[in-house]
Amino acid sequence: MSDRGGIGEERVRFGTELLAGLTTFLSMAYILALYPSVMGRIGLPPGGAMIAAALSAAFGTFLMGYWAKYPFALAPGVGIVPFFAYSVVLSMKISWQFAMMAVFVEGLIFILLSLTRLREKLFDIIPPQLKTAISVGIGFFILFIALQGAKIIVAGPCLTAMVQFRQECRVSGLCALLAIVGTGITAVLCSRRIVGALLLGILVTWGLGILCQMTGIYRVDPAEGMFSLYPSLGSDSCGQAFREFGSLVGQCLNVERWSSQGSGTSGWKLLFSINFLVVIFTLLFDDLFNTIGTLAGIASASGMLDREGKLPRAREALLADAVATAGGALLGATTTTTYVESATGILAGGRTRLTAYATAALFLLSVVFAPLFVAIPPFAIAPALFMVGFSMVSQITRIDFSDLPAALPCLTAIVIMPFAYNIADGIFFGFISWTVLNLCCGRRERVNLFLIVLSVLFLLKYILL
Question: Contact, 175 vs 148, CB < 8 A?
Fold first, then answer.
């Protein structure tokens, strides 16, 4: 396999890589709005939280490009952010500073694991068919995210339901219709191999939404999740946001802030508490296998794995993720991890580190121009995500469904990911079912001691946590 990060290739592909970086960034920009919204509920100032998210994303994505030479982008994990806020800080009644300290320690542990090649070993032991299943599962996960963002699938009496187009014609139904039209346009652009098809699809769908707002068809109603589609570059006190950011930097190391108000427990005692161990263990498991699963899925879908099913420079990619997590915690950001939305840039032609550099640079710019980027609504991103999901799901034909001991665990991993809304849970159930079924069916050559130990640990996680 050739080195995809070569300088010669970068020079040839310069324009394509920059366009891919922009596509990746636009598909991830929602985290700049989501992160301060969620973290504001546990005491982080919104402006400072947004800057922390943007800088941690820029830092992690740059490291991924510099060390691993891959077009993958990183940011605070969208699944980990609400878990951090609600399950850790609010449920355990600990301060966000102390919880952020757990993220910092988790990052340090990941650095050690990456340097000892343990995380790379974990990546390599995933059976090839499970790697394909992870890619397919992520594809369905992306499709589910797109359907929700487009408001085609909404909450219903049976957990989910199809949007009522007629009753919701001015709100959710309109967003769904725009997403469907945008997906059709994007599919045509992709089939005709138009350069920047995904980016054009995003911008065209957004533009159609703006036209609907201008003509009064689209109704702004924040209570319904319908925000203005107009980009705003007004003076929203950028200086205030930076002052708020200054109050976040290094707070995970501030022992005096570790104790929550009224707890009466010293910070150092909390450091050796069961709560601290539980938080670290949970974050370790979720982040470790979210990252490994995302890398395996995206790399498999984009043909970046070698003939043995291994990812070249996996150690550098995992190390970038680990350092970004530790560095992000110092800035005031939760676990920084590789995003499945990186696949949008890869599908747009991104193959080298220039895509990562372009994405990182845009996250830096977003510190000042965030109102422009966060104005892009989820329904405008949905067409690009649909095409990415389609590309990844199409790999399901590589799974041999006549081989039950292999196929059933693959299907388990695929199904769990979107329905549990968690990549790691899909991997956990895939590993457990693979180990148990192959051992019971006499296919012991497919199971090694490492897989057995991991499967037992995953079972204990669900039993004890």
Answer: no
Q: How confident is the model at residue 205 (pLDDT cuts 50, 70, 90)?
A: very high
Phi-psi label, residue 436: left if phi above 0, alpha if psi -120 to 50, beta otherwise: alpha
Residue 323 in 3-state DSSP? helix
Give the CA count within 13 Å in the CB-facing half-sphere of 43. Answer: 18
| CA distance linking residue 165 with residue 334, whole number of Å | 37
| Single-letter code of the amino acid located at 283 | L
Q: In angstroms, rounded to a whole number, what is the distance separating the alpha carbons of residues 347 and 207?
A: 22
DSSP letter at 221 equals B
Q: What is the DSSP letter of 337?
A: E
pLDDT, tens only, 266-287: 556 767 776 677 778 777 777 7
Q: Which residue has the tokens 């109603």?
A: 221
Q: Is the pLDDT of residue 131 over 70?
A: yes
399 Ramachandran zone, left/alpha/beta (phi>0; psi -120 to 50): beta
The rounded distance, in Å, linking the Cα atoms of 221 and 188 is 32
Secondary element (H or E) of residue 396: none
- From residue 32, alpha-carbon distances to 14, 72, 78, 148, 434 in Å are 27, 18, 11, 18, 38
Asked whether the beta carbons of 364 and 100 are under 8 A apart, the reply is no
The answer to whether 147 and 160 have CB atoms below 8 angstroms apart is: no
Rounded to whole angstroms, the Cα distance separating 395 from 142 reads: 14
Give tens-digit pLDDT for 67-112.
Answer: 999 999 999 987 678 778 877 787 777 888 888 988 999 999 989 8
pLDDT digits (tens, 9 = 90+) for 36-65: 878 888 889 888 899 999 999 999 999 999
